[in-house]
């Protein structure tokens, strides 16, 4: 895991929550009113910044970083 002090924004948090809940990128993107490519880019950026090799690893890292704390 790469250390990152960055906080994620509400859109990124919602996308991550939807994906971890089992939604596809396409349905998660539609839910947050962005294109599938934008959602894929957001996910790729989060994975790159944290060094997460998978979505599930990103979820674990997000938990450790406190990114879920303010999720609605």
Give your account of this protein's structure:
The chain is built from 4 helices and no strands. It is mainly α. Helix 2 packs across helix 3 (36-50). The termini are far apart.
Overall spatial form: globular
Helix content: 55-70%
Question: How many domains is the backbone divided into?
Answer: 1
Q: CATH first level: which class?
A: Mainly Alpha
CATH topology: Arc Repressor Mutant, subunit A
| Strand segment tally | 0
What is the rounded Rg? 11 Å
User: Structural class per helix/strand content?
Assistant: mainly alpha
Largest sheet: none
What is the string of helix and strand elements? Answer: HHHH
User: How many H/I helical runs?
Assistant: 4
Protein name: Regulatory LuxR family protein
GO molecular function, one term: DNA binding
GO biological process, one term: regulation of DNA-templated transcription
Organism: Asanoa ferruginea
What is the topological layout?
Layout: H1 10-20, H2 25-31, H3 36-50, H4 55-65
Helix pairs in contact: 2-3
In short:
With 72 residues, the chain is mostly helical. The chain contains four helices and no strands.
């Amino acid at each position: 895991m790469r250390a990152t002090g960055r906080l994620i924004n509400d859109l990124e948090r919602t996308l991550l929550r939807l994906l971890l809940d089992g939604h596809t990128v396409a349905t998660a993107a539609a839910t947050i009113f962005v294109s599938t490519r934008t959602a894929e880019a957001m996910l790729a950026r989060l994975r790159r910044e944290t060094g997460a090799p998978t979505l599930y690893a990103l979820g674990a890292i997000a938990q450790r970083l406190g990114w879920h704390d303010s999720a609605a």
